[in-house]
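On clarity, I found the account of how folds are encoded harder to follow than it need be. Since the whole study asks how a given chain folds, the encoding of that fold should be made plain. For illustration, here is how one protein appears when written out as sequence plus structure tokens:

:::
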Amino acid sequence: MQERFGQFKRSEISQAMEQNVKKRDYRILVAENTRGTIVGHSIVAIKKDQNGQSFGLCYARYVDPRYRRSGIASQLLEEAEKWWTKRKVSYIVAHSHTKNKPIKNLFRKFGYNVSRAQNNGTYKFNLLQKDLTGPPDSRA
């Protein structure tokens, strides 16, 4: 049986990492426990939209269930936001399955807007988006 990380198979994550790990606009953030075992990750990138604006994309994140509710997901998102801010992206986008309330709550805590449910033909998801162009109080 193929080991899974969230909705992705280990082989899918490995393939994505191999294809993108050397790209300048791509980061794999990992969290380790005290023994050095990876207990969480976030795969993030910088992309360009149809208007040529740079935006941050958080397209994979996972925390081992035994380590959830310990702040790891928040730390990974904070690190990603620092990188995106340093790289001067205009906004950040992520997607979440509509049933994933914990991740939607995490992103809300960080000031992201959560869209109504959308359907891409495979599953229902919410778009999570945060504007980084205005003053901090206008970003929520």
Q: What stands out?
A: The radius of gyration is 15 Å. The chain has a mean pLDDT of 86.
